[in-house]
Amino acid sequence: MKNEIIPFYYPSDKVIVKSKGCYQYDSEGKEYIDFESGVWCANLGHCNDRIAKIVEKQAKESVHHGYRFRNLFSEKLSAELQRLIGFRDGSSVFLSSGSEAVNLAITLSRNLTGRNKILKINNSYLSAYGFGRISKENESLVNIEFNNIDSIKSVDFNEISALVLETGGASMEMVRFPDSEFISQLIDSVKKNNCLVIAEEVTTGIGRLGKWFGFQHYDVMPDMVVTGKALGNGFPISALTISSALTEKFKQSPFVYAQSHQNDPFGCAIGLEVIKIIEETDLIATSNAVGTYFKKQLERVLNKHQDKVKEVRARGLMLALEFKDDFDGKKVSDSLFESGNVIGFKLNTLRFLPPLTIKASDIDKMIDKLNSLLTN
After folding, report:
1. Cα separation of 180 and 266, whole Å?
2. Using one digit for the tens of pLDDT, what is the confidence trace for 169-191?
3. Distance between CA atoms of 36 and 336, rounded to whole angstroms?
4. Which of 3, 74, 253, 293 is in Cβ range 3.0-4.6 Å of 263 for a Cys bridge?
């Protein structure tokens, strides 16, 4: 049956039958510790009991309603996201994927500024398609070099509608965090030239980096914030939230954007419960402590195996361990998976974005196996 799926990516031959908390189980009953949170979505762990209850309740009440009605779940979720971001009297729209929300943010910025190009840091991933897609055919993107202040000076800001700012990408260069001085000078140039700032928080938001949003590690207040992934804890919902100033500008120059699952109550009810759970359990503070522990354990691996390990990078519960160029990191990655650890791998780097509920004991199990593989 494997041939029934178009191979846009290549999974292993393992068949998943159950996911719960930080664990996934294949058809042979084997348990895996999920250090990727699915695709960085299940910040509360897979099949969270409280989320499951919301899903069951909402599925019996209203899943989807079309364009004739408002729903209070979407309006309440917009208010909650604004509160967490620091906006007042702004507004939101709710969609299905991060890529969709990023592209709508770009479309909105182009509409409001009359400019067509988008500025991004060269190692940022924006979206799978459209204006944010990384492609030679996409003439909308202008790149500046990561942490290179001089590269900011080469930008013609008169043609830039917005900076799309990702503050800890997990995809392109496997977990790198821009320096504060670089971000400060970049934002200063953007603001001086009347460009907008779009905080792209699809991966970095909802507690992943030890704060609600990655931009909160810097002296930045964006004009728009894009969230997704963990907002639905695995359910496909994303959001574009904009400031009060942009809300007023949009009212003066509106355009129609409509898709089938826009502002659906189902996903918005889930998003509200995700925020509620994180706040009631103080999960961000807890995950910060676990992230600090995780980083220390990876640094011990680095110190023990300096002949093989090049660097450890971490913020909150987004971490990476990069191997030296002459070491076969893929072999280690494959062995970790076979031993029951789901870990990202690219550019000779192991990537870790576990659920925020990960236990120190599960981290220890993986670290023990990693040390064993590097010793043999």
Report:
1. 38
2. 888 889 999 999 999 999 999 99
3. 13
4. 74
